[in-house]
Design brief:
By secondary structure, the chain is of the alpha+beta class. It contains 14 helices and 22 strands. The chain folds into two domains: 312 residues, Glycosyltransferase (Alpha/alpha barrel); 239 residues, Beta-galactosidase, Chain A, domain 5 (Distorted Sandwich). The relative contact order is 0.08.
């Protein structure tokens, strides 16, 4: 996909979301509402793609008065929602209240929409928008102070201050924004990510990449390019072939099955980055947008340069990478898997155990298949042993997170070794030429004979998925209000379970349970929705005993 084709693909994808924006628009208030009638300030971010569609040739919405009306009335609504200090009350669509904020995403999208539409506004409306934007960005300057901490929100504030300075002529904002961006560039790990929870978070890393990428295009500051190139390398390794983020190394966010749309402006300066964006746009084209057009695609239309592209791992069927000795990713035929050795350091365990937004780094495996998507994994949780690859208990001491980790790539099998105190646990993965993949769990003999070790892995399993098992006479469907548990007598010769296309051959003593719900920091009561439920396979492991092995097969037809 060449640059012009990429721009057009992004533009058309944005245009496909306009009917959803029209349906969600409340003509009385100018707010874009959720299906349930709820509202969050970020719903107004749609005014940027609407403004871009109005001003850009290539769709039926060029110079469309209806689209212009949606965009400017959406901006009017933002002004109406501001308090005297320019802030917004962050109310989520479920009605939960999260306090007053200068919502960083919305403020950038608002000021960028202003830049596109100010020539279309009457003087009174334009002055009212400017007053609201000045109130907001002056407030951001006051809130950040002289020494803002490194954080994804502050990174966006820095970028937006630079853009607002360019559009509204405030040099004090410009210098403050540049200082903030430079601080964030300097804080990046050499491994290509920004720490949150003492390690990477694939999803939030894209927030930094997006902001610093936009800053590059606004300011032309080439000093940020090495930082963006390191981040690109990180995401080339930790992006599934279907465009979703690899959640296994993420200490904040669980798996989202959709192709990500944030981060593109930070990838566009590089040949491999442009190829990654082209690959992601191709994946997006396979799906219908689930709502109003995403503002995060607008930079592809606004900033994509012409230039060559380079091959990327997502388009290969055979590659392996050990990322700085900390995590391994491998594609072998239809399989892709990740073994994570990113751990919460000992000094961070106490701090993060009560931190709302930081998850336990406890789930070190994910497996993806080209016909079934993510079949093993889904990410971490908090204070839940069901989500731990190994649970090690000695007396009253229980460890869900490993203390040390090493990863090793080998032609025959890839190995992750995890230490839990004095107990060494091992997980190996091998994909054979027969289309199967084998997982093997083993525990070395430790000095404490009382130690109890349980191994396990999670299976993303949506409600309604077909379930078959060797100890059941008929198939069933998963029901979020019906507990399903499976066990096999010791005398059973064949033990297997099949969820949709995934079939797993199980060793003795294995158990299967569904649904298990993860901790959800984004809900006010931490409750996960049915779509976030997983199935859990668990099994005892005898220290010094034989490995427990699981054979995974993806069938052509769901069971």
């Amino acid at each position: 996909m060449r640059s012009q084709e990429m721009r057009q693909a992004a533009l058309e994808y944005l245009a496909r979301g306009v009917p959803a924006a029209q349906l969600r628009f409340d003509p009385q208030t100018g707010l874009f509402l959720s299906d349930n009638g709820g509202w969050a300030v970020t719903h107004q971010d749609v005014i940027l793609p609407l403004a871009l569609l109005y001003q850009t040739a290539g769709t039926q919405y060029r110079q469309n008065p209806g689209v212009l009306s949606l965009a400017v009335r959406g901006g009017d609504a933002l002004r109406n929602q501001q308090d005297q200090e320019g802030r917004f009350e962050f109310i989520k669509p479920d009605g939960s209240r999260w306090g007053k904020t200068y919502m960083c995403w919305s403020m950038y999208h608002w000021v960028e929409a202003y830049g596109l539409l100010r020539g279309e506004m009457d003087p009174q409306r334009r002055a009212r928008w400017e007053a609201g934007l000045r109130l907001c960005f002056d407030g951001i300057i006051g809130e950040l102070g002289d020494d803002p901490r490194v954080h994804n929100i502050n990174c966006w504030h820095g970028m937006a201050l630079v853009r607002a300075a360019q559009l509204l002529g405030e040099n004090s904002w410009l210098e403050a924004g540049k200082r903030i961006i430079r601080r964030h560039v300097a804080a990046q790990s050499p491994e290509g990510y920004w720490e949150e929870g003492a390690g990477p978070t694939t999803s939030y890393n894209l927030v930094y990449v997006h902001a610093i990428g936009l800053y590059y295009w606004f300011a032309g500051d080439e000093s940020v390019l090495p930082c963006l190139e390191r981040a690109l390398d990180f995401h080339l390794r930790f992006t599934y072939p279907d465009g979703a983020c690899v959640e296994t190394v993420d200490g904040r966010v669980r798996h989202h099955g959709s192709c990500f749309t944030m981060g593109y402006p930070g990838f566009l300066p590089f040949p491999a980055g442009r190829r990654l964006v082209a690959h992601l746009l191709g994946r997006l084209a396979l799906d219908r947008p689930d709502g109003a057009p995403s503002p995060y695609l607008a930079p592809v239309v606004m900033h994509l340069p012409d230039g060559p592209q380079e091959p990327i791992p997502q388009e290969k069927r055979d590659f392996v990478c050990v990322h700085h000795g900390r995590a391994l990713v491998r594609r072998k035929g239809p399989w892709f898997y990740c073994l994570s050795g990113y751990l919460t350091p000992t000094e961070g365990i106490a701090e993060f155990s009560r931190h709302r937004w930081i998850l336990d780094r406890q789930n070190y495996l994910s497996v993806w298949h080209e016909r079934a998507g993510l079949v093993i994994g889904g990410g971490n949780s908090k204070n839940q042993p069901e989500f731990s690859t190994f649970e090690v208990t000695s007396g009253r001491v229980r460890r869900l997170q490993a203390d040390e980790a090493t990863v090793q790539a080998d032609a025959e099998r890839d190995v992750l070794k995890l230490s839990y105190g004095d107990v060494l646990c091992e997980l190996s993965v091998s994909a054979g030429g027969d289309g199967q993949l084998e997982l093997a769990f083993h525990v070395g003999r430790g000095p404490d004979e009382r130690v109890k070790v349980t191994g396990g892995f999670t299976i993303p399993a949506l409600e309604g998925k077909t379930l078959c098992a060797s100890n059941r006479d008929a198939e069933s469907t998963l029901d979020s209000i019906a507990q399903t548990g499976l066990g096999w007598p010791a005398s059973t010769s064949q033990r297997w379970v099949q969820l949709g296309r995934l079939r797993i051959a199980l060793p003795a003593d294995s158990g299967f349970h569904w649904p298990v719900y993860p901790y959800n920091p984004y809900a006010i009561n931490n409750a996960a929705a049915p779509a976030q439920a997983v199935a859990v396979v668990s099994f005892p492991l005898a220290p010094g005993g034989p490995a427990k092995k699981f054979r995974l097969t993806v069938t052509d037809v769901p069971g």
